[in-house]
Automatic annotation (TrEMBL):
NCBIfam families in the record: PRK05820.1, PRK06078.1, Y_phosphoryl
Complex formation: Homodimer.
Species whose genome carries this gene: Tissierella carlieri
Pfam family, one: Glycos_transf_3
The enzyme's E.C. designation: 2.4.2.2
Protein name as annotated: Pyrimidine-nucleoside phosphorylase
Amino acid sequence: MRMYDIIKKKRDGYSLTAEEINYFVKNYTNENIPDYQASALLMAIYFNKMDKRETLDLTKAMINSGDTFDLSSINGIKVDKHSTGGVGDSVTLILGPMVAACGVPFVKMSGRGLGHTGGTLDKLESIKGFKVALSNEEFVRNTNDINISICSQTGNITPADKKLYALRDVTATVENLSLIAGSIMSKKLAIESDAIILDVKVGSGAFMKNIDDAIALAEEMVTIGNSYGRKTIAVVTNMDEPLGKAVGNALEVKEAIETLRGQGPEDLFELCLVLGSKLLVLAKKAKDEVEGRALLIDTIDSGRAYEKLIELVEHQNGDISYVKNLDLLPKAKYILEVKSIKEGYVKAIDAEEIGKTALALGAGRETIESQLDLGVGILLNKKVDDKVEKDDILAYIHANDLEKAKEVEEKLLDIFILGDKNIEKKKLIYKEIDHI
């Protein structure tokens, strides 16, 4: 088998066999195929696409390029969750404890954030001492003890994906549904949970800007998961404005804890209920989503979900006083009020632009080497459809650099679009996909 023939075949619009895809993935991972040939194939895939069978074979090949994480020694039906990323997204920190408090093992291996704010692991490190690197034995033991573990990826998980993504990033071949879906699902399926829910974000603050593209990606990933023998559901959700009110690592942790105490933003809590009720049905803890929703609300009302977060922090060596006393979380030196210069209704808040202001303050990473400032960020005081009077506070800027804070203040006044009340109320959920 020659790489030249595989490139030519895909260039001419033909489907690749499983053997050809395996040959490419295995040999590129082992550095037997040069970057220029891999780039040529990626570009051919970008233009001629892959069918569903090819996409599944690509995903399998990437899974098989490294280790898989056997979770069979964890009791019960194990569930996992993945988000395609957005602005102000602390869902995992709320959803995980709620689901675990219902007796369902919630198993999640997360990554670091690159962009507007940190990833789930970065946020958790706002809690002093929280240990994100667990051995396989610790991961399994903790989950069996308290039904939840959240940690960094262990071992040699999908090395092919790491190599291919780095190459796609510099060859303008990222935006292809098969390549995106294969990349995401190979990492999810290498962790052998029993069921997966996918939160596919769409809008200004998401990777997918267009609703049709987001639905197509969700359908592609659900097809891969179910074809691989894993129960998989996707929910396409709105990311035109930030989810919740907090954008920034410690600010989002604080908001997550407040939500577990029953005092969180309505949209953030609602999304957790939607995703969580589906997971409880998949895990056979609820006969339907109505029952699942009631069980989840009870974990908040009874305080069990909040106590479950404390158990998670304790089991991963974190200082639980940071959960009990939110004043201990990292703080910014300055807090600036952004006041409206006119009245009206909030018509729009561009999530991507809010994310950029948080990044400018130091809440996110511009490069892998960037250091996060865990205490900084934006706290929204008004959301879309809210009434605003002149001099009302639109947002609070949490900053450690006063000059940057002043620059961000000017930008925020432009980001909040005020005018007449929107005719239609914004949607949180666009579509739910449970099979294709």
